[in-house]
Every structure is written in C-alpha cells, then in structure tokens.
Amino acid sequence: MQKMIAGELYDPGDADLVAARQKAQRLMAEYNATIYGQSAERRAILGQLLGGGAAATIRPPFYVDYGSNIFLGDGVFLNYGCVFLDICPIRVGAGTQIGPYTQILTADHPRDAETRATGLEFGQPITVGRDVWIGGGALLLPGVTVGDGAVIGAGAVVTRDVADGATMVGSPARPVGR
Asked: What element of type H or E holds 70?
C-alpha cells in the first residue's frame, strides 16, 4: 500500500490491496443501500470507509477504490454518482460542493506499452481547495490541484492545476473571464 500511496509503480493484484478493495466494496454497497439523510448509520459507514470526513453529505451511489485515501473537509457535499478512485490521497476542502457524476481519478497507467503490459500501475494525489464548486460530470485527472474558491464547469476535464478563484470550462479545461 505504501508504494501505491507514494505514487510509485505497484501491483494492484497484491493480496493486501485486493482485501482493502473488497472491504471498500462491501462498505460502498452498505452505504449505497441506505436511505438519504445524515443518519447515524450513514456516518458510521463513512467513518469506516473514508480516511476522514464522515460528516460530509454524500448522496448515493458513491464509488471508491479504497476510501481510506479520501479526506473530506467540513460541509463537503457530493451529489449522486460520484467516483473517487483513491489509490493516492484525495483531499477536498471545507465547503466544497461537487455535482453529480463527477469523477476524481488519482489512478494512472504507464505510457510505454512494455511497462503497461506488466500490469503495474501508479497514481498521483488530487487536492481540491475550500469553497470550490465542481459542476456535474466533471473529470479531475491525476496530480491536479484546484485552488480555493475555484469553479469547474459541468463536463470539464481538468488536466492541470487550477488557480484560486479561477473558472475553468471545456475539455481540456481552460480558464474563462469572471
């Protein structure tokens, strides 16, 4: 797990990683079967699933690789169908709101075919600042940082860092005037 979190090449078939993903899948299934609301049951499940942020509002379904590498600040809201592939840490700042079907993906794959054929993978962490709005269907790729107060338009594909307060739209995401 340490190589994976550090962004080094790792084997996703490692027995410990398989067991961790299976635990996350069980907890996701439990969470996704709950009725909407901030019940004690939901918070308990998130407390077991996430690295931090059990008080966040997350509308199911919600999908993760491990969950333990996800850290959500106070008042974070995730709408339906979000996918957080957390082989490296995903940190989301307080007050951030994330639209439905947004994907935050730390997982990556080698660019050269020979290394890719070995089945090894790697990743890069993603950090989203405080009070960010991410529109529905946006996609954040490995290694990006989104600054405080930024806005990511619906369907945007974020391939590079976003400055504080910037508004980004399109694929690849580009800044637009305020």
From this structure: strand 70-72
- Amino acid, res. 74: D
Q: Which two tokens stand for residue 100?
A: 């439905």
Residue pair 126/162 in contact (Cβ under 8 Å)? The answer is no
pTM for the predicted model, two decimal places: 0.95
Catalytic residues, which ones?
A: 109
Domains within the chain, CATH numbers bracketed: 2-176 (2.160.10.10)
Residues in the chain: 178
Q: pLDDT tens across 122-171, in order? A: 999 999 999 999 999 999 999 999 999 999 999 999 999 999 999 999 99
User: Under 8 Å CB-to-CB from 178, ≥6 apart: which residues?
Assistant: 165, 167
